[in-house]
Design brief:
With about 170 residues, this protein is of the alpha/beta class. The protein is about 25% helix and about 30% strand. The protein has a five-stranded parallel β-sheet. The longest helix is centred in the N-terminal third of the chain and has 15 residues.
Amino acid sequence: MSTLLLDAEALYADLLKGVQRLMQADTALVGVWSGGAWLVERLQRDLGLKGDPGVISSSLHRDDFGSKGMSASPDQTKLPFEVEGRRILLVDDVLFTGRTARAVINELFDFGRPASVALAVLVDRGGRELPIEPAFSAARVNLGAEQRLRLAKDAAGRFSFDVRKD
C-alpha cells in the first residue's frame, strides 16, 4: 500500500464548494457506502443541513456479485427522508467504471422515483465502462487498471488516500 500524493482534505474543501453550487432547497444528500457515507456526514454538518444524510449500498444491485460476493451489508442503505419527487445528490469518494453508481441508482429507485439524481465525487479516475459522468469532481487522476484508490478516514475524521494494487 502506498500513499497517493493527493491532499484529500484540500479536495474535500473543493467538493464542499462544488456541492454548495449543486444544492437546491429540496436536495437531499446520499452517500455511497462507505467513503461517500463519510463524505456526506461531514458535508451535512459543514453545510449546516438539518437531519441526517442518506447512505446507500450498492451490494444488492452489483453486476459482479457472482465474482466478488457481497461487499457491504444490504442494510447499510438508510434513507431517512422520502425519495419520491426529491432531488438527490449522490456523493462518492472515487468514480471509476461507473458500475457502483449504476448499482446505487437502481437501489435508490427501489425507494421511489426521485425528481432528479446528480453525482458529485471527490476523485474521478476515468476508465468509464458506462455512460455515467459526475456533475462535479474535485480532481481527476489517471491510475493503472490494476490500481485501486481508496479514501481513508482517521480517528479525528480527517481524510487521506491509499493506493493498492490488485
